[in-house]
Amino acid sequence: MVGLRSSIKRPTAPGPVLARLHDEAFRLLLWHEPDRAGESALAGASLQLSGHTHGGQVVVPGVGPLVLPPQGRKYPAGLFRVGGMPLYVTRGIGMLPPRMRICCPPEITLLTLRRVE
User: Fold this and answer.
1) pLDDT tens, 69-82?
2) Which one of 51, 59, 79, 101 has the fewest beta carbons within 10 angstroms of its own beta carbon?
3) pTM (whole model) above 0.70
């Protein structure tokens, strides 16, 4: 498991960090911003877990989130497959101003990872 700092505040890339892991290792990558998941998949991540978007906080049914942050617009919340790699983006429990959630409840995610035999 490896984690990367926020790429908004300071440029970073998953390749050099993932390259340090053993070839057969399960490569769990924690990266705050989900929209760079394509880079993670290309660098060999097995799974990326992200947050950052808060799910949009205000979601219009049938339309989606009204406002999403930079590097959090492609994958607002939930499970995605990016280049064959699973990406899970949690809505989390926090909020950014305006401090409200509409059709976007807070979420604490419990994931169970199992080895495929």
Assistant:
1) 999 999 999 999 99
2) 79
3) yes
Contact 30, 75 (CB under 8 A): no
Q: Any idea which residue has 């809505």 for tokens? A: 91
- Using CA of residue 32, residue 36, residue 41, residue 44, what is the dihedral sign? negative
Local structure of 26: helix, strand or coil: coil
* Total number of domains constituting the chain: 1
115 assigned to some structural domain: no
In a domain, 66, yes or no: yes
- Does residue 110 lie within any of the structural domains? no
Which residue range forms the structural domain that includes residue 63? Answer: 2-89
Q: How far apart are CA 50 and CA 59, in angstroms?
A: 19
Residues 23-53: tens digit of each pLDDT: 888 999 999 999 999 999 999 999 999 999 9
**What residue type is 62 in one-letter code?**
G
End-to-end CA distance of the chain: 20
Strands 47-50, 85-89: pairing kind: parallel
Residue pointed to by tokens 């429990």: 93
Q: Which residue has tokens 């989606």? A: 64
